[in-house]
Specification:
This protein has a single domain, classed as Alpha-D-Glucose-1,6-Bisphosphate, Chain A, domain 4, CATH 3.30.530.20. It is built from five helices and seven strands. The relative contact order is 0.23.
């Protein structure tokens, strides 16, 4: 009797192992990665470039993919001190919505609905871009860009949060591979954003930029 039970258990175990590759499993991983760097440009010029050029659009594209559409939802500009000729004391608060075509982690393309909220102050600029709802394998995404004056230059910190999930046949190393891929993907996106910002500032810092009221 005991022998029969052991044989039955062994057979069931072998059947379970044989069916394992066909079992559907949910994989999910998150990561938060940060990069910091100095841009060779004074902060006043750098923040004008961020407000008056396509610098923000370039960074959204660098992080995600092709910008399909852009809509400014709200814009609040403090102009009192500008009109009085007091250089550097202007402020801007803006909300922008993007639709971006991005590579889906599991293949193909996906459209990401993003919302960007930017607050520009005399000595600080913060921009937060987040995914409004899950799309494709993207369960969540949020990017924080923090820009401050730094010894005559500009100090930039970018933090990227990613949440990726999907269902697929089970494989033993699947979760570890996903965790590795999401970290590599986040680091690659941060590197592209850094390159885009430095390039844009380098191209525009010699130009005359004025704050126009839109």
């Amino acid at each position: 009797m005991i022998r029969y039970i052991l044989v039955t258990v062994l057979i069931l175990a072998l059947v379970a192992l044989a069916l394992l590759p066909f079992a559907v499993h949910t994989y999910r991983a998150t990561t938060t990665r940060t990069c910091a760097f100095v841009v060779n440009c004074d902060f006043e010029t750098a923040r004008k470039i961020m407000v008056r050029t396509d610098a923000g659009d370039r960074m959204v594209a660098a992080c995600n993919g092709r910008v399909i559409s852009k809509q400014v939802g709200s814009l609040d500009v403090s102009t009192d001190k500008i009109l009085k000729g007091m250089r550097g004391n202007w402020e801007v608060n803006a909300k922008t919505n993007y639709m971006v075509e991005a590579p889906n982690p599991r293949g193909g393309l996906v459209v990401l609905p993003l919302e960007q909220v930017s607050c520009v102050h005399p000595n600080h600029l913060v921009s937060v871009t987040k995914l409004l709802q899950p799309a494709g394998n993207f369960r969540g995404q949020e990017t924080h860009v923090d820009i401050q004056p730094y010894a005559g230059a500009t100090y930039v910190t970018i933090t990227l949060f990613l949440d990726i999930g999907f269902t697929a046949p089970y494989w033993p190393s699947g979760q570890k591979e996903l965790e590795k891929q999401i970290v590599e993907g986040a680091d690659a996106a941060l590197s592209k954003m850094q390159t885009a910002l430095i390039k844009t500032v380098g191209e525009r810092k010699g130009q005359k930029l004025s704050l126009k009221i839109i």
